[in-house]
């Protein structure tokens, strides 16, 4: 008993749970509950359309109602999903979107990283002038280049081909500018010591400079993939056959066939959303880091 009292008198007894909780309550953000509430409302506003889409997609084909509540009550069926997967080209369109987005992302990262390294670490004539052209490229909206771009692709006989969809999307002025700023931040002592040790330009690029820019490369890769996956205008203009449709092009064409119905278009949209949802769940941390990175560095 005396030991217990002496421990208390010396201040060595661990803090009780009650004291710990009161300490946290005294030091927590007074607006925390308000912030959490606002975040919850915003999240609910974003997720409600998805929930409604899922419930509509499992309704019997041809079901219509003016009562919103009836969309969330039985009867339910998954036969719509079977019909869409068997009778439509949505799986083919999903494959096209994935392949095009993946190849576009890989080629964009290769080209932008090499160009950024050249602007950052190499000396050549008209270097500053060429870099100004990259900066000016950010000021020109993509829609303004559609007609000349279409004429070039048509003259190369690339209309209605994978190459015709992919090649115009691999040049990224923003990617070059972001990576150049990261490469410029590599300590000069590291570059000089590598060169003195006989490191070639190529080894300097992929063994030293590029690994140090992984956050920037990851951010550019994520947003290039998302941009290619969601791209509508250029695939819509350059694709003629349904077998080459991407999801942003194929889904509106499919929905136009059922302009007076809800169920099948919602089923098609739900199926098209599944790969994106899975990708987000897998790469959630990378996507969030990419968003925060572009917000801080951009």
Automatic annotation (TrEMBL):
The chain crosses the membrane at residues 36-58, 98-119, 131-150, 162-183, 204-226, 262-283. Its main location: membrane. Residues 94-283 form the ABC transmembrane type-1 domain. InterPro entries: MetI-like, MetI-like_sf. Keywords: Cell membrane, Membrane, Transmembrane, Transmembrane helix, Transport. CDD domains: TM_PBP2. It is a multi-pass membrane protein. Residues 1-13 have a biased composition (Polar residues). Residues 1-22 are annotated as: Disordered. It is found in: Cell membrane. The keyword Transit peptide does not apply. Belongs to the binding-protein-dependent transport system permease family. This is Carbohydrate ABC transporter permease. The lineage of its organism: Bacteria, Bacillati, Bacillota, Bacilli, Bacillales.
């Amino acid at each position: 008993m005396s030991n217990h009292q002496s421990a208390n008198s010396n201040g060595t007894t661990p803090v009780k749970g009650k004291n710990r909780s009161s300490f946290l309550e005294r030091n927590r953000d007074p607006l925390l509950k308000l912030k959490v509430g606002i975040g919850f409302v915003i999240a609910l506003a974003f997720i409600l359309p998805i929930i409604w889409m899922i419930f509509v997609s499992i309704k019997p084909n041809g079901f219509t109602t003016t009562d919103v509540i009836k969309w969330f009550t039985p009867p339910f069926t998954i036969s719509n999903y079977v019909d869409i997967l068997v009778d439509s080209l949505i799986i083919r369109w999903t494959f096209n979107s994935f392949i095009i987005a993946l190849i576009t992302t890989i080629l964009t990262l290769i080209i932008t990283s090499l160009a950024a390294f050249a602007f950052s670490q190499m000396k050549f004539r008209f270097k500053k002038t060429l870099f100004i052209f990259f900066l000016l490229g950010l000021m020109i909206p993509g829609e303004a280049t559609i007609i000349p771009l279409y004429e070039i692709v048509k003259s190369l006989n690339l209309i209605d081909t994978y190459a015709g969809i992919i090649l115009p999307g691999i040049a990224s002025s923003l990617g070059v500018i972001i990576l150049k700023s990261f490469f410029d931040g590599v300590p000069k002592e590291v570059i000089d010591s590598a060169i003195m040790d006989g490191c070639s330009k190529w080894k300097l690029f992929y063994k030293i400079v590029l690994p140090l820019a992984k956050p920037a490369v990851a951010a550019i890769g994520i947003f290039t993939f998302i941009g290619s996956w969601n791209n509508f205008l250029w695939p819509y203009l350059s694709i003629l056959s349904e077998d080459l449709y991407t999801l942003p092009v194929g889904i509106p064409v499919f929905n136009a066939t059922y302009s007076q119905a809800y169920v099948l278009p919602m089923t098609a949209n739900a199926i098209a959303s599944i790969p994106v949802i899975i990708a987000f769940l897998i790469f959630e941390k990378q996507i969030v880091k990419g968003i925060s990175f572009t917000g801080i560095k951009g």
